[in-house]
Amino acid sequence: DSLLDSLARSRGIGDAYYDYRGELKPFSARTKTAILAAMGCNVTDAAAIQHEIDEADAARWRALLPPIAVLRPGRTGVVLAVADSLLDQTLTWIATAADGKQRRGSARVGELQEFERRELDGRGVTRRLLSLPEDLARGYHTLEVSLPAGPRGDCTLIVAPARCFEPKALAAGEKLWGVAVQLYTLRSRDNWGIGDFADLEFVVRHCALHGGAFVGLNPLHALFPANPRHFSPYSPSSRHFLNVLYISLPRLPEFAECAEARRRAAEPAFLTGLERLRATGEVDYPGVAAMKLPLLRLVYDHFVREHLARGTARARAFLAYQEERGEPLRLHALHDAIDAHLRAQDEQKYWGWPVWPAELRHPGNIGVQVFAAANAENVRFHAWLQWVADDQLAGVQRLAAELGMPIGLYGDYAVGVNPAGSETWSDQSVYRMGAGVGAPPDPLALKGQDWGIPPQDPHALVAARLVPFRHLVAANMRHFGALRLDHVMALFRQWWVPVGLGATEGGYVHYPLDDLMAVLALESERARCLVVGEDLGTVPDEMRRAMAEYAVYNYKVLLFEKAADGGFL
Description:
Blueprint: H1 2-10, E1 16-18, E2 24-26, H2 29-38, H3 46-62, E3 68-71, E4 77-83, E5 90-97, E6 102-108, E7 113-120, E8 123-131, E9 139-146, E10 152-159, H4 168-171, E11 178-181, H5 197-209, E12 214-217, E13 221-222, E14 238-242, H6 253-257, H7 259-266, H8 268-279, H9 285-308, H10 313-345, H11 366-374, H12 376-402, E15 408-413, H13 422-426, E16 435-439, E17 449-453, H14 458-463, H15 467-476, E18 482-485, E19 493-498, E20 507-510, H16 513-527, E21 530-534, H17 541-549, E22 553-555
Parallel strand pairs: 3-10, 11-12, 12-15, 15-18, 18-21, 21-22
Antiparallel strand pairs: 1-2, 4-8, 5-6, 5-9, 7-8, 9-10, 13-14, 16-17, 16-19, 19-20
């Protein structure tokens, strides 16, 4: 058990937690073993666990640099691991920014401040602090360190601001108000049975007219175009992209140009179908998809003929979007194309990528490359859908700014994704499918919760130099003046529920809070996007302190904010 505890701590698994009644609850050996197994650790016996511990410990001392290092005001050093035999040498360092600009320096190893030391493989190793200039430009740098007769190493250097971005009005102490809408619930004479970006524009105009500062939204994340029955915005396919059912077809320039699409949309049977969709008491997602997606394909085919083939300005804008979003867009479009292809064969059998044919289950497989080549037009169609959705959402935020709204669109970032979606398929090295994220028991859910969304492994996240998190935050701040982080405590710890165990048998896995908050602050400043954290439930003190330090605003539910006398705070 002591070996198990040691390995668990090294992988971020807690020993215990305080429940909603204030009682200390230790995590069982069964829980720790199951979580470690979900992380891919060999926990079959004591020898295997000892080997995992030794390898993890040695890796920390063998690498000259850690995978990532964060610099903030007042924190300007990077910890190195160097053999005692190299203490008399002078190291050189180079910090290369994203734009190619470089800063250089040198330092005598033996003169650097020492933090700790140990014996490794029969030799002494020391960990020392390398101080870097305080005026390095904010952003992501590659730091390279080398010694004349020793090792070389590199890491990602994140130079972040002290705090997240705050709109001037809020920083000056003013109070701002706005309205919150679930976009899918909006009804209008012009939409096709689901609220769309044209409806959102209408709400923004009227909110601004009355002095509103923002319009809050449900998550707009990409769902499953080929499976419209799965419609929860909190169980998306990917948080990097958008739900294409929110596209307003009549607002597309290509719709006005495409005679066939306009003719189809004017047919009596089609108009009758639209009236039925607008009159339903709840959103008929399959009905909406059946009306929208075929016409979007018609409009896309027109776009290919009249724009891509001729190299028009619209074509260049699409190509620029593809280049900007790069590999994540290619993989998301590829996932949606494969998903549509297989569901058309057998929707029950092929419910998601974990049960796809083996050759398609990983984006690096030869079978996926063969499919992409044979279905290039279908893949590009799904990329085009993302472009037009992105373009329409961007237009609404531009309008909000033109109308003088201090924030504009206030977006929502779901805590996780569906295990069958493109985000998990695209990045299988970080997600752990053998567990789900949830919550421990509380007064509203005495049996705990398992939300069925796979967690990211913090160890793998750091090994990937936080790139998945960086891309995710940047993608969600693209067109928002504020972003709400669902279950913000996930930046500090997440309740992992291993497959096969109940939610009460889960355990907390801890994440590199300061590093994640630094990325959040940097991306917030770059996008000029206010950050709001949903901190409901059991919120640890570490999270509250981090939110205050980094200027992450709090999201509260009025009914829970009562004083001792029963009045509201």
